[in-house]
Amino acid sequence: MGSKKRPSKSLEELASEEDAPVGISPETVKEPKKGRTFDEKTEAEGASTPVIPLSLKPMERRKKRKAMDKERHRLDSEYKEQSNDQSKANNASKSSECPPENRASLPSSSSSNLPGFHIDVFRDLSSPDPSVREAAAENLVVELCEVQKAYEKLENKKEDNGAVQLEAEKDDGMGHCSPSSRYAIRRLIHGVSSSRECARQGFALGLSAVVGAIHTLEVEPVMKLIVDLLEISSSMKGQEVRDCLLGRLFAYGALARSGRIAKEWILDSSTSLVKDFTNLVISLAGKKQYLSEPAVAVILEMVEKLPAEALLSQVLIAPGMHEWFKRAAEVGDPDALFLALKLQERVCGDSEMFGKLLPSPFSPDNFFTQDHLLYLAPCFKESTFCLPRLHSLWPLVVNLLIPESTSQNEDAVVCSTSSKKHKRSRKGISFEDVMKNIRCFCEVVVEGSLLSSSHDRKHLALNVLLLLLPKLPVSCIQVVLSNKLVHCLMDILSNKSSWLYNATQHFLKELLNWAGDDDDRHVAVIVSLQKHSNGKFDCITRTQAVKELVGTFKTGPGCLLFVHNLMSLFVDERALTDESSDQSQTTDENSEICSMEDEEPPASGNTDFLKIWVIDTMPRVLKNLKLDSNAKSWVHTEKEKFMEEKFCVQTEIMKFLAVQGLFSASLGTEVTSFELQEKFKWLKAATSSSLCRMCIEQLQLLLEDAQRGEGSNLLNGLELNDLGSYFMCFLNTLCNIPSLSLYRTLSKEDEKAFKKLQAMESRLSHEERKIRPGPDANKLHAVRYLLIQLLLQVLHPGEFSEAALELVICCKKAFPTAAHGDSLEEQDDFDDSDAPEMMDVLVDTLLSLLPQSSGPICFAVEQVFSFFCDDITDAGLLQMLRVVKKDLKPPRHQAASSDGDEDDDDDFLEIEAEENDEIEAEETDEVEVVETCDSDNCLDDSEGMLGAEAADEEVTKYDEGSKRIDGVEATNEEDTKNDKDLSALDDSDSGMDDDAMFRMDTYIAQIFKERKISGNDSAQSQLTPFKLRVLSLVEIYLQKNPGKPQVLMIYSYLARAFVNSHTTEGSDHVRQRIGGLLQKKVFKAKDYPKGDDIQLSSLEILLEKSLKSASRSRFKTISSLAQTSAFWILKIIHSRNFSKSELKGAVNIFRNVLVDYFNNKKSRLKPGFVKEVIRRHPWLGQQLFGFLLEKCGSAKSEFRRIETLDLIDCIMKLRMTGKAEKNNDSSSKSKLLNKYLPALGELIQELLSNLPEKQSRRAEVRRFCTKVLHAVSILSLNKSFLRALKSETYSLCESQLGDAFLPFKIPTR
Prior knowledge:
It comes from Phoenix dactylifera. The chain is mainly alpha-helical. The strands form 2 sheets. Strands 1-4 form a two-stranded antiparallel sheet. Helix 5 (130-153) packs parallel to helix 8, helix 13 (292-303) runs parallel beside helix 16 and helix 32 (608-620) packs parallel to helix 34 (689-709). It is elongated, with a radius of gyration of 51 Å. The N and C termini lie far apart (143 Å).
């Protein structure tokens, strides 16, 4: 085989034959013609022409060969062009006789009777296009078959073939073949060693087709020729050796695919052709590792076409086969194992030729035993050489590990094994055996051999598992996702720079995709990942894998399945063993060890992380069970079914949280309730108090969620299940079990409160069931849930027993039927005639629950308050408002003389004190800056103030005929805090008696205790949420009672608290909440305070304080709020229809504010705000018209004088349009202007005699004077106006106003 010498022909000649016929060199090819054929004459012409001198060095020969290739390609292109031209000429002449050289179907020489064949097919065989290669192979076979048939008909083959036959004359064993066939075989063998384009694939295809089609061509000579032509000499190096080896591989593959070897053995079973061929391929496989796997594929290609007896008599006893199998496990040869497994499928019975590589007798159970897998471990490890491609061995092993019947019927098999352990699947393999094999395979191969080794082998392990996933039964997920694998995933994913990071991410993504929509798979994956990561998989890996899987449970049965598995995980002692994330388990010395500095330490000795995750995740599942918008189209039965499924999940979660969080078993870890017909299980070790508290908190959240869900609009008409009643029945049942006790021992007060809450809830529940659904039933329901929440809160260490007892007393007063049956002693507790009002006590109790209670209790308090707020007293409302206004810290710049709550009640909106000269200078600069802007855009609204702060042209027009006047919207955008803030706030509490003040102070007693321990910041941080919770109650009251007079009191306190928040640090959330509450629930409410109980004097005081704040506050948010509140108060005043004499006080308030605007530079009153007020309330402008004329003429500030002109013009427009009076006749319109014509004349004289220096302001003055003249003309007051004008004024108008004054000119004086 390999000992024969290469033929004398040089490698360069053989290489050149890939692209040109034998003997034809680029130098000898002059003008190639279309249809050039190969015959003996062509051989003779170029037989003696050497191609490349043998004396050249290998590198020079290679360069020479490349140059020849380029020249040949150039000649080929010229040949194609000439042939195209020639074909066109032939088609045009339509000649019936064609020259022999132009007809491909005829021989090219008259001296030979054999047809020729086209050599172009060899070029097409290397085309990248598969269809071109297939067509070329078909043409080659057709032409060679024709040549061979003609050759066989010749009588004297030697004479007709010519004297010179080149290669054909050699003793190659193909004497019965035509010279063309012999040449084609050699050319094809040379071609499979070429690395050009797709030459190997194409020439192998051609070789397979030729050998399979020409039966006179014997296989054995071809095998010998492959060895001779592709022999590796000592002078070959690198790529040349590789080309020859791959050429042999493709040539052997072509022979195996042709089927001739199998046919030869079938015709003659005594031939050794199969054995020799197998020996050649085995020898080739041993030369290079990359040849081993394809060599096995070649053998299997041949074996598929052989009968089974040929395997035993030929293949298995071939030289080298037994030795290959024998040393496979020692050296780690996966290809030998793959070949053995494939051959075993064809061999009947057990063969000793496989040695120890396969067990005897062979079966999947014997193959996947621990000892045998350990023996084969080297083979599995060494299969990494073909990464990233997966070795062919692994799909075979996976199919052997999990038969198709197991993957198709896994669920049925799992169910059947529970009752019939020995039931077999279709292939006779029990499901228990499959699980056993999978477990052993994962432990020995995946974990023991691959994961504990190098990066490549870890990568291989992930790929093998991905191959295993599609066929994996759900019950085996936890076997595959073992502790070592999960830790390996965490180690890699926690470090993005890890070499395997992308591969591991891909594995995790495919794992989630495999889970799909199957709830069983979701549960198995989640439990495995969290169990082995101690509940921190997402945290460590910085992914959302577990969170995404938890969010996939959308159905009631799926959620219930997940909840049951979480319960088992919580009480499973094996899951809570300490499993440290040891790097040595999953990494080797070359692996990157991830840095866990930023993560929590592994769960060494601390198993609470997993329990915490279980407790936290279980109620979260209910968030997926929500009615979406599609539920509106559901029928009644579908909604009922959905609610039943959700209630079933809620009850299971509730029972778990109650059992694990409220009780502990004194006898053993399991307790059976015969009444409930259920068995409850606890851990051997006592549950920590922190976990118990967490269970109670989640239980409270669960009840809150159930209470919120009852108010859904989608559930109207459905009879809802009461989770609160179910919980209380369950709690009472467990309390009656002797072997169970509460997780902590209650004090006497707590125990008393606990029992009273139980009894009162039971009575209220009985009362609720007796009455029909309606407001009364809803009120009972809300109180019941507050009692349940408070009962759970009593189990927390804290001071809630007193509030619980007070709430019970309030329930007895609010629902007298519930107090029936109490002893006389208990009746005396609340029948005392000196006792406060029930609503005051209820409000006091509800407020005492808010400071340090959980969110669910606060929600329950809000629900109860919403049903009782209609009956709340002023004293109770005042208690709430004092909490909102209360501050632990004084204002940052409080005056020394401030006495806090002892201040008078003059400034309910914070009015800034007079600043010193520095502030005055700052104010002067501000005015100068404002004066430089255009008159239409001079107002600063950059802080988000709307309405009154907008420019005149941007203000919403007054809606004529509308009786409802809306407040102007102002945003709550926070302003940057200045260095100097507002002075102290008035905290007057004159409306409260000593008892009420004492009760309010007790609410913050606990906060002051905390303050002594942790400092002011801690106390203030706790007071802020308390205020926010009280504000929620205030919002409920405002929403239900928008038209009550008490809204004014609420507004007053909220406004003071809003201003106070600007002077207190750490109150941003309170400020935003109050601002939003005032805007949405007070100023923009559908209703506003009405009734004769509202005194005009009170409204005037509120209006005055609002206007002062609007004109003096340096905080834009306060100024905006003050302006909006002024609009709101004026709307209330307007709705009362007071007489003009009664409204004089309001007019005087505006007059005083305007006096301050004209006389004091510190005034920040926006003219746009006053203008909007006048537009909404024209009667106010009518009363202020003369005053504005007077002040405008004597104004010191030129800028403010110009702004006032706009106000005067606005009043005149309203008067002319008739909005100022109900009567729109001309006499009423001219009445006001006629009265103030002299004043208008004096103002015009003052303006025109002292024109501003700036051109824009002079234009404003002239425009105003022109508008006055226009108004006088429209109202036909020309004569009166002229009589009122002084001569100086007349001259100024005539000179300054030009054409606008022409209608008023006197012809002659």
